[in-house]
Amino acid sequence: MIGAIIGDLIGSVYEYRGLKTKDFPLFCVESDITDDSILTFAVFEALEKCSGDYDDLGRKVITEFARYYAIYPNPVGGYGGSFLRWVNKIYRTKKIQPPYGSYGNGSAMRISPVAYFARNLDHCIELSKKVTEVTHNHPEGLIGAEATATAVYLALHGKTKEEIKEYIRTHYYPLDKTIEEIRPTYRFYVDCQRTVPESIQAFLEATDYEDAIRIAVSLGGDADTLGAITGAIAGAYYGIPDSFVEKLFEYLDDYCKIVAKRMLNKIKEVEKNRF
């Protein structure tokens, strides 16, 4: 969760720049959270408000998306076009709208909180589907979110990189290219199929949390979303340096600071009880 938000923050400056190096400043004056973080906060609050009963999770997710849209109508980089039309109609009509068949990487960028509320891996998959299908009901959108959520869950619960890689290869993506093979020709993509596997590969080749973010951003694509997805997995696996968390709070407004503190408490709770 927090790992995703920091990854988004770091990547926000490099979106559209086509960066192809790991040598870049992590935190800049222009850095800011984007819709990736805003919707991650929204998913977290929806899960939190379920109080352990997730039967109505989908409706709560929609409610939180609309509420956050009302608070943050113009985030850095904007919302995806389909999501913006969907959530704006909900906001205007006060009526739930059907999903719009997306396979965009928005399903994966926001999904990490489910791993911290899931009781087991199967439950993680179930929660991922409930969160994702309110918008991204295309099979590839569901797969992208689920692959990300399960990678975070496995990382959080002590699985090795080889175990995580094998699970993802068996159930979702082949992961058959190294970062050095991907980077030279990689461009700006917004679909799950060409964002999620690359983000997972960035995590797999990293030496620590910071290195994971640097690798993801260095691909030169949708940098904030690559950072968010990779950061979610790497944060669960390595933990996050305190200095990065402190830096994040310098960029958050008062409301997001409150939610982020609750996220940190949830992370501590899960880490304490996971083994």
Structure report:
With 275 residues, this protein is an all-alpha fold. It has 15 helices and no strands. The chain is globular.
The tally of strands reads: 0
Taken together, the total number of domains comes to 1
* Name given to the CATH homologous superfamily: ADP-ribosylation/Crystallin J1
Let me know the average pLDDT: 97
Number of continuous helical runs: 15
Order of helices and strands: HHHHHHHHHHHHHHH
What shape does the CA trace take?
globular
Distance between the termini: 20 Å
SS strand fraction: under 5%
Q: Radius of gyration over alpha carbons?
A: 17 Å
Biggest beta sheet attributes: none
Helix content: 55-70%
User: How is the CATH topology named?
Assistant: ADP-ribosylglycohydrolase fold
CATH architecture: Orthogonal Bundle
Class inferred from helices and paired strands:
mainly alpha
CATH domain class: Mainly Alpha
Indicate the multimeric state. Answer: single chain
Low-confidence stretches: none
Q: What's the arrangement of secondary structure elements?
A:
Blueprint: H1 2-11, H2 35-50, H3 57-71, H4 81-93, H5 106-109, H6 114-117, H7 121-132, H8 139-156, H9 161-171, H10 179-182, H11 196-205, H12 209-217, H13 223-238, H14 242-251, H15 254-273
